[in-house]
Amino acid sequence: WADVRALVLDKFVAGLRADKLDFCGMLFPGLMLTSSGLKVLEFNCRFGDPETQVLLRRLESDLLDLLWAATENQVTTQTPNWSSQAACCVIVASGGYPGSYETGKKISGIAEASTDPNVVVFHAGTKMRESDVITSGGRVLGVTATGRDLPAARKSAYSAVQKIQFDAMEFRGDIGDALTNNQPDQI
Q1: 109, 133 in Cβ contact below 8 A?
Q2: What is the tally of helices (H) and strands (E) in the chain?
Q3: Residue 143: CB partners within 8 Å, gap ≥ 6?
Q4: What CA–CA distance (Å, rounded) separates 132 from 141?
Q5: pLDDT class for 26, splitting at 50, 70, 90?
Q6: pLDDT bracket for residue 180 (50, 70, 90)
Q7: Are 158 and 65 in contact (CB under 8 A)?
Q8: pLDDT digits (tens, 9 = 90+) for 75-111
Q9: CB 116 within 8 A of CB 95
Q10: Can you name the residues that pair with 126 across neighbouring β-strands?
Q11: How far is the C-alpha of 128 from the C-alpha of 1, rounded, in Å?
């Protein structure tokens, strides 16, 4: 966290001040940890998805209170409470994403994946067709799990992903590897 603050956020705030810009709102820096260090991919003035799914699973405070304080320029009066648990989100995508992909594929296993109380399956590129959930986008689901530590959260997330099925379904098997040193076949 100290690196993110020093290398990204403090510099962003210094730039705002130098340019005499008043920013009030949501700031989401998209970051990547690489072998050569922390890299900034993007800045958004909105919640990032799926990153927010991981953060909000750990937030114990009332999100509305935090957002309201920000709108009233009172954010320093709020101290968010965070769970000590770790969280991991695995995106389940349509085959071909981020390039071309087909939609309308029937999805099964979401209810089974959701039976673990540590797992929440967030819908992104889905819609209902009659009584079926079908794919309607590239990033289809965000399977987000919490656990006592990152390896436990990761194990729960991948276990839930294995219960979900649709034609041409894809997901990365390396989410959290850099921090847990676990390989997908060891989960």
Answers
A1: no
A2: 7, 8
A3: 89, 90, 91, 92, 113, 119, 121, 122, 157, 160, 161, 164
A4: 15
A5: confident
A6: low
A7: no
A8: 889 999 999 999 999 999 999 999 999 999 999 999 9
A9: no
A10: 135
A11: 40
Rounded Cα distance, 125 and 94, in Å: 9
H-helix or E-strand spanning residue 178: helix 177-180
* 52: its two tokens: 């927010």
The model carries a pTM of: 0.82
Query: How many other C-beta atoms can be found within 10 angstroms of the C-beta atom of residue 99?
Result: 7
**Distance, CA of 65 to CA of 165 (rounded, Å):** 38
Distances (CA, A) of 89 to 21, 22, 40, 41, 70: 34, 33, 20, 19, 27
Q: Is 184 helix (H, G, I), strand (E, B) or coil?
A: helix
Contact 154, 89 (CB under 8 A): no
3-state helix, strand, coil in the chain (%, to 5): 30, 30, 40
Residue 83: other Cβ atoms inside 10 A: 11
How far, rounded to the nearest angstrom, does the alpha carbon of residue 144 sit from its chain's CA centroid?
Answer: 8
Identity (one letter) of the amino acid at 131?
S
